[in-house]
Amino acid sequence: MIVDRSRLEFGSAVKEALAQGLPVVALESTIITHGMPHPDNLETARRAEQVVRDAGATPATIAVIDGRIKVGVQGHELERLATEAGTARKCSLHDLALVAVARQCGGTTVAATLHIAHAAGIRVFATGGIGGVHRGAERSMDVSADLPALARTPLAVVCAGPKAILDLGLTLEWLETHGVPVLGYGTNTLPAFWSRDSGFGVDAEADSPRAVARVLEAQRALGLSAAVLVCNPVPEALALPAKAVEAHIAAALATAEREGVTGKDVTPFLLAEVTRATGGESLATNRALMEANARLAAEIACELAPAPKAEA
């Protein structure tokens, strides 16, 4: 992948960390612009960044600000994204050039964040849940751009599994076909975002950040271009029962169809409907899993960073 790095604007802390080979974790920004209401979105973004710092890495929240591709947004820019969420664009790969030329603001999806993070030289990325094959995709052909991005971008991607609103079985089939290994962190079953167990298996279980780092290093050594998907179950205390979540999703899907919600609007609509149906419980779960994923991603990044040289 050839990218003109002059198109990227690095935050000072991120630029210094990358120059010194220190651990850096990429964080996406659609969770700010489209995933949560204000002020929860700002609080979650700030908390995720702090969790990464506390674990010994540098956070690099990626977003588009007035057409500038930012790798490590500043504090005032984070606040702007959170407060202008209603007008910011949801930026996947097909939006990036358009938003840049139009000098707009936007939150980057998993796919767009992966692309930018890889171009910036970042090896680890934390998000809440990935996109995938939508339910009914055999009719709508609705498959998230996250999946092909995962198949061609060799980062460790830490998530709480695919979003539960998706067809999880078909999503796993897509990932397998396109060479993306799926690791369960401390589990041999696939988490389903708000719930710890989807009923599906994973390719392998990893029991430590070092174990994940070894898989990523082996992927690189073998010339494999796909990401390593690390599925970290939501903390048990805030996990939601899978059957209850499924009932809420079914109701939300029916509402979306009735109201004609399609395309990139489907995911934020369904997430908002589930938040409403659970009385805010799913929002608290989302915040908890984002923190847990940020922490694990930082630990993996620390394993991948070269050991500091001893002074002579």
Structure description:
There is one protein chain. With 312 residues, the chain is α/β, with parallel strands linked by helices. 47% of the residues lie in helices and 14% in strands. Strands 1, 2, 3, 4, 5, 6, 7, 8, 9, 10 and 11 form an eleven-stranded mixed sheet that branches. The longest helix has 24 residues, at 281-304. The chain is globular, with a radius of gyration of 18 Å.
SSE blueprint:
Layout: E1 8-10, H1 12-19, E2 24-27, H2 30-35, H3 40-54, E3 58-65, E4 68-71, H4 75-83, E5 89-91, H5 93-102, E6 106-108, H6 110-120, E7 124-126, H7 137-140, H8 146-152, E8 156-159, H9 168-177, E9 182-185, E10 204-206, H10 209-221, E11 228-231, H11 242-259, H12 266-277, H13 281-304
Parallel strand pairs: 1-4, 2-3, 2-7, 5-6, 7-8, 8-11, 9-10, 9-11
Antiparallel strand pairs: 3-4, 3-6
Helix pairs in contact: 3-4, 3-13, 6-8, 10-13, 11-12
